[in-house]
Design a protein that fits this description.
69 residues, mainly alpha, 2 helices
Length: 69
Amino acid sequence: MATATGEAAEECPPKTVLAISMLKAQWLLDDAAHDISGGRYSTAQAIELMETLEELTRLMRETIGDAHL
């Protein structure tokens, strides 16, 4: 599974990586809302969104901590 933020994330502070992942999830959710209503949402799009949301969850736990979630 590819990460939501890519290989360049290794050079960024954790909170920057988290913010980038949040933005990607937002874009994919916006696309999903638009494409689903028009009957154009593919399985590949759904998989990318699920993987991005899973990565976002992981990053939030690592960055913010499980105790705060």
